[in-house]
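User: I'm new to structure prediction. If I give you an amino acid sequence, what do you actually give back? Let's try with this one:
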Amino acid sequence: MVAIIDYGLGNLGSIANMLKAIGEKTIVTSDAEKIHNAERLILPGVGAFDAGKEQLEKRGLDSVIQREVASGKPILGICLGMQLLGRKSEEGKKAGLGLIPFDNVRFDFSNIDENLRKQLKIPHMGWDIVAFKKNVPLLQDIQGTQRYYFVHSYHAVCDSEENVLMTCDYGYEFVAAVCKDNVYGAQFHPEKSHDFGMKIFENFVRRC
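Assistant: Good question. You get back a string of structure tokens that encode the predicted 3D arrangement of the chain. For your 208 residues, that looks like this:
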């Protein structure tokens, strides 16, 4: 059973439908006991960093997530959900969950070629190719060129390369996914990434 954490933000139905397609039972919930009883957690999210953290705090879910992760339970953060796994963001003032040592920064194209800069829009939106940087269960048996769907204006900057799971290039190389022990985060939307995203979900529920 996978608990999709409901804190008022995110593509909850789309994620549940994709997990259903691979035969996984899910529950969309903000109930601490149901989250505790689940085998794995997904933290979705769309919107601003402070708004997301505020909604987690309002429901007492920040401490619930930290407690469950400390027990060894796997969690996958998606888009804003991934950003909230870190310490902070230039987008807001609130502290993140602090589960992986990284901060979120806005795309900064000031140091790249002016002609290229004019072609780059914020947010970074649409399909893009990623590079795998680590061999972890989430990426097991995934081969060939991988494309995922992105919508974001901020990206992670990790303290250590050890926590960089994937990178993508948009004006410069940025972190597209992170990991640390039982904690995984994807800046892209697996639930919007068709077969590519389905394989990510399948690995998360079968191998992580």
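You can read the tokens as a compact description of the fold. Here is one thing that stands out. The longest strand covers residues 124-132.
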